[in-house]
Amino acid sequence: MFKQIFPILAATLALTGTAAMATDYDGIFRPSIAAAANWNCRDLGMDGGALAIQGNRFIGVENACTLEKPININGMEATIYNASCSGEGESYSLRMILMKHDRGIYVITDGQIADWVYCTK
């Protein structure tokens, strides 16, 4: 079930979706925790690989989300999305907020916040 795996979402998302225009969130990310300092930022879609956001695609290993219906949050570098996701043989949807900070992004869903830093920035 997705809610059980969200804390490791970036390590478990896969490349899917259609081509989309770049967004302010585009990039390749790794977990911010110190243990992730040696995270492999070259291997998208593999265990221990990086998370990427490319346009409306939230990309990683075994799961993927298409980000739809963006709503900018006034006064913040943040956007709310409807996320249509699939992975491990299941499809699901959820609301997701992406919020920029000086080293990367926060990925926020109901009851979860993940902090991801840029791999190459």
The helicity comes to under 10%
Mean pLDDT: 77
Number of helices: 1
**What fraction of the residues are assigned to beta strands by DSSP?**
over 45%
Q: List the secondary-structure elements in sequence, H or E.
A: HEEEEEEEE
How many domains, in number, for the residues? 1
Offer a concise description of the structure.
This protein is mainly beta and 121 residues long.
Mind sketching the topology for me?
Blueprint: H1 2-5, E1 27-31, E2 51-54, E3 57-59, E4 63-72, E5 78-87, E6 90-101, E7 104-109, E8 112-118
Antiparallel strand pairs: 1-2, 1-8, 2-3, 3-4, 4-5, 5-6, 6-7, 7-8
Which key phrases capture this entry?
disordered N terminus; 121 residues; eight-stranded antiparallel barrel; 8 strands; mainly beta
Can you walk through the features of this model?
The protein is mainly β. The chain has one domain. Helices cover 3% and strands 47% of the residues. The chain contains one helix and eight strands, in the order αββββββββ. It has an eight-stranded antiparallel barrel with strand order 1-2-3-4-5-6-7-8. The longest helix is centred in the N-terminal third of the chain and has 4 residues, at 2-5.
